[in-house]
Specification:
Blueprint (H helix, E strand, L loop, with lengths): L6 H11 L19 E6 L14 H10 L4 E3 L6 E3 L2 E6 L4 E6 L13 H12 L17 H4 L14 E5 L2 E5 L21 H5 L1 H6 L7 E7 L3 E6 L13 E6 L3 H9 L5 E2 L10 H5 L3 E13 L12 H10 L3 H7 L5 E3 L27 H10 L8 E6 L6 H15 L5 E6 L2 H9 L7 E6 L5 H9 L13 H12 L3 H18 L2 E13 L3 E2 L15 E2 L1
Parallel strand pairs: 1-10, 14-15
Antiparallel strand pairs: 2-3, 4-5, 5-7, 6-7, 8-9, 9-10, 11-17, 12-16, 12-17, 13-17, 18-19
Helix pairs in contact: 9-11, 11-12, 14-15, 14-16, 15-16
């Protein structure tokens, strides 16, 4: 979730790390029971709520309520389970035949058909529509014709998508991708009704989906009101009467409203309240791992940072960072020291490892000092860690990382923070390959597969490979893993690729970001899914 075409990832990670908070609480929560309405903190979406154009957390929360796709990620395990997919068949991991379940409709009564998916995907992919999630369709044959790197499209639709009948369509990929069906729970792959194409502006004003909620109203800067759709055909029917998402620009204000009883749910507890949250909320505070990792990336396009033997330098810098101390003191245990380049939410069977990074992610000042020296020393004598300064959320941890490096190396000038004005300025410098030293990087998974933590970030010329890392052995193993039809063997190959990344120290893993939330006494059954988003439809109101 970040990068030139996936700017979403950094934006998402940032949006999760920050709060979207603002103007006031106030209880328009209605009554209790099955018809009670949940009030929750929120922030205005960056873009209109088109599935293929929503690439940040706040808009994603709404899409998770008003849409259901072929797959849905289990809110507890993250497993991709069939929802609208009756079956997805393939004999070669390149050509797929998809059958859509009968009986599903959009909330306006339109049937959900194979064409609903094919039209939506073609719309999302086409360059003229300027959809931020277009790269998610890049695996489909013909994407390069509708979304060329330069110039105008040479086709109206992707050749790899074909409607067979009302409930069946086929997909042809450009290469083998055995776990491609597992990606289809991501919102970009949601279906769209004919109403969207008939009158897009009207649809954008009041989006129509096929999920357990419908949008009742939206006032930008104030709130969005969603109501339970009683005719929803899915099994995950809303357990409440609706959700009112209240816009906040200060997460401390949202937290104050929560503790005052004017708000039911805050899904990102502000850092300033972490010392008080247990006393304030007790067991109504949630702090759990999410599919988010924070790293330090390197500018491999800069010759000063891409010399033979510098893997020792990078490993030394990693070992100079006291992750345990920083996550405990700065983040109050809302972060967990990283032990690999993925996330604990994958589980060991899914590719997460508690030991893969090993000593390279363990603080050892003496070894760090030795490795930095053996790796040729720090280019220019000082590591300047770049970060965007506009949010105020990064300076404290960057300073802590630099203090740790300075103490380990016995040099107070070995590391300093390099604040860059705004997030936009920061991202522009990154995408224009203007970084001159390590820079903060964050990734929130699009879907719970180890592939999503590795290929978009470290494969040669991948869309979110901001540091331009490249290794032919890594690429080869990724290709082999994607082509492997046996899931266990595929995960093993991805792990071997990750070991190549580890030996290069292609990026320094810092910590896994937890999802945090607090809720009022008025609601129960509040949980966060592996993406750290509240499972709104299962919240009960007393």
């Amino acid at each position: 979730m970040r990068g030139a075409t996936h700017a979403k990832w950094a934006a998402l990670a940032t949006a999760v790390a920050l709060a979207a908070t603002a103007c006031g609480g106030g209880g328009d929560s209605g009554g209790g029971g099955a018809d009670g309405v949940v009030t929750s903190s929120w922030g205005d979406p960056q873009n209109p709520l088109e599935p293929a154009n929503t690439n940040e957390v706040q808009g994603g929360k709404v899409l998770s309520m008003i849409f259901r796709g072929l797959k849905q990620y289990d809110p507890k395990t993250g497993e991709a389970k069939d929802v609208l997919a009756e079956k997805i068949e393939t004999t070669d991991s390149t050509n797929f035949r998809i059958t859509v379940k009968d009986g599903w409709t959009f909330s306006n009564g339109e049937k959900v058909t194979a064409k609903s998916f094919v039209d939506a995907w073609n719309y999302g992919a086409h360059i003229r529509n300027n959809q931020r999630n277009a790269p998610f369709f890049g695996q489909i044959e013909g994407y390069d014709q509708v979304h060329p790197e330069k110039g105008e499209a040479k086709a109206a639709t992707m050749s790899g998508l074909k409607v067979v009948d009302a409930r069946t369509f086929t997909v042809k990929l450009t290469q083998k991708f055995s776990t491609w069906p597992e990606t289809l729970g991501y919102a970009a792959f949601a279906p769209l009704p004919k109403a969207f194409f008939d009158d897009r502006e009207a649809w954008l004003a009041k989006p129509i989906g096929n999920g357990p909620y419908t949008i009742d109203s939206y006032a930008k800067g104030s709130q969005m009101v969603l109501r339970r759709w009683d005719a929803y055909p899915g099994t995950d029917k809303a357990q409440n009467g609706g959700v009112t998402l209240k816009v906040y620009t200060d997460n401390n204000t949202a937290y104050t409203d929560l503790t005052a009883g004017n708000l039911d749910l805050v899904d990102d507890v502000p850092a300033s309240q972490l010392k008080n949250v247990q006393a304030d909320l007790g067991d109504r505070y949630i702090n759990q791992p999410a599919g988010i990792i924070q790293t330090l990336a390197f500018p491999f396009y800069d010759p000063a940072w891409n010399k033979p033997g510098q893997e020792k330098l990078r490993k030394g810098l990693s070992m100079a960072i006291n992750r345990k101390q920083i996550t405990e003191t700065i983040f109050q245990n809302t972060r967990t020291p990283a032990t690999d380049w993925t996330s604990p939410v994958l589980g060991e069977e899914g590719g997460y490892s508690k030991t893969l990074c090993g000593d390279a992610c363990t603080y050892n000042a003496a070894e760090a000092k030795r490795l930095v020296a053996e790796g040729g020393g720090i280019p220019g004598g000082t590591v300047r860690i770049s970060y965007n300064a506009d949010t105020g959320s990064h300076k404290e941890w960057v300073d802590a990382v630099c203090n740790s490096i300075n103490n380990a190396l016995g040099n107070n000038r070995a590391c300093v923070g390099n604040p860059i004005g705004t997030f936009a300025d920061f991202r522009n410098q990154i995408t224009q390959s203007k970084m001159t030293g390590p820079f903060r990087a964050g990734w929130q998974m699009d879907y719970p597969l180890i592939q999503n933590f590795l290929q978009p970030l470290y494969y040669t010329n991948a869309s979110s490979n901001d540091g331009k890392y490249t290794d032919p052995e890594f690429d080869k193993l990724i290709d082999q893993a994607n082509a492997e039809t046996d899931t266990t063997k595929a995960v093993d190959l991805f792990r071997k690729a990750e070991e190549v990344l580890r030996d290069d120290m292609g990026a320094i893993p810092l910590w896994y970001q937890n999802g945090s939330a607090g809720y009022s006494e008025r609601v129960s059954n509040v949980t966060l899914n592996p993406f750290s988003v509240p499972v709104y439809d299962q919240i009960k109101v007393s």
